[in-house]
Write a structure and sequence with these properties.
single chain; mainly beta
Length: 88
């Protein structure tokens, strides 16, 4: 975060990790706290469910973006993605 581009975070769809990610809605605020003590805030701009081969959301960008995703669906057959932009 803070260095430009697409920050991509993946976590398993488990109770302690990203089980609730599919409930997030556009407009929600996500806060990332770094080991340095710095905090970054992002606002969710979109969510989507895609197949495992659809990787456009995790590719590098020339603008600041946060992408968080996890597996969903029967036998983890799909990916749920939340995209967010930095709050100023």
């Amino acid at each position: 975060p803070g260095q430009g581009g697409n920050v991509v975070l993946y976590g398993h769809n488990t109770k302690k990790l990203l089980k609730k990610l599919p409930q997030i809605e556009p407009g929600s605020v996500i806060e990332l706290s770094m080991d340095s003590g710095r905090t970054y805030q992002y606002q969710v701009s979109s969510t989507m469910t895609v197949g495992p081969k659809e990787i456009d959301a995790v590719l590098p960008t020339d603008y600041d973006k946060l992408t968080i995703y996890t597996c969903v669906g029967w036998a983890d057959s799909q990916r749920f993605i939340a995209e967010a932009r930095p709050l100023e």
